[in-house]
Amino acid sequence: MRIQTLVSLVPFVLTLAGVSLRAQEPVPQPKPRPVETRPVETRPVEARPVETRPVKPEAKPAPEAKSTQDPQPLAVGQRPKRMLQLPDLDGTVHRSADYADQIVVVCFWSTKCPIMRGYEDRMAAIVREYGGKGVRFLMINSNESGQEIDDGPARGEDGKPLPPAEDAPKPYAKIRAYLAENELPYTVLVDHGSRVADEFLAKTTPDIYVFARDGVLTYRGAIDDDPQGRKGEDAKPYLRTVLDALVAGETVEPSETPPVGCTIKRPRAQGARREGR
């Protein structure tokens, strides 16, 4: 009985065994398809020139332009804008500060101007009279191209006078001779380059500037209204009138008259016409 039972189970066991063996067999995988490779089309890169722009140098600030305008004149009722200084015939420097609290008369002066020559006796008398009353007189010669101050001391490259040789004659011999010949009691200052004449905008010889004790320009203009010397006592004594009032301590209203005389011979620029022609 047992044997028959076992025999009957044989087919069933074999069936299970077949299924188990099939389960262990590897499942066939599909073969991968070959990938078709295509050559990549490469295009040469066109080299383009790089645009370069020139670098502009950094702009430097422009130098300050010098004014080409004429210097502003020293107007009556004003003080000089800066301290002025000029040497006399012996080289001693005179500064405006040296004359503080004094009445000062500045006269632009020439040894060759016929109008100035005609005034010498009258001007010398004024210098002597009012000089004794404390008024200071300074005669300024700015005639560089008029050959009046051309015999001054030799100058170096910096424009300053060089020490004179022991046997050298005194400078400005022509002016010294003129003063001695006419017995003129003047303190003469030399204005090389006409710098002070330019600052004052002096025009002629003579051209008078009167400064009160406080340094204010009180009068500018002519000595009187008689440049030809023909009116005598009938002339209007502009300069004397102003000095009388200042010496007396009176308040003087600033005033001016047109100066009359010869044109100041300033240095000529290269290629410029001679002044006065």
Detailed description of the structure:
With 277 residues, this protein is α/β, with parallel strands linked by helices. It has a domain at 85-155 and 169-263: Glutaredoxin (3-Layer(aba) Sandwich), CATH 3.40.30. Helix content is 24%, strand content 13%. The chain has helices at 2-24, 114-131, 173-182, 195-200, 238-247; strands spanning 85-87, 93-95, 104-108, 136-141, 188-190, 204-205, 207-211, 217-221, 255-256, 262-263. It has a six-stranded mixed beta sheet with strand order 5-4-3-7-8-9, covered by helices on one side. The longest helix has 23 residues, at 2-24. The radius of gyration is 54 Å and the shape is extended. It starts with a helix and ends in a 14-residue tail after the last strand. Residues 61-68 and 270-277 have low confidence and may be disordered.
Concise account of the structure shown:
This protein has 277 residues and is α/β, with parallel strands linked by helices. It contains five helices and ten strands, in the order αβββαβαβαβββαββ.
Q: Which descriptors would you attach to this protein?
A:
alpha/beta; disordered C terminus; extended; 24% helix; Glutaredoxin; 10 strands
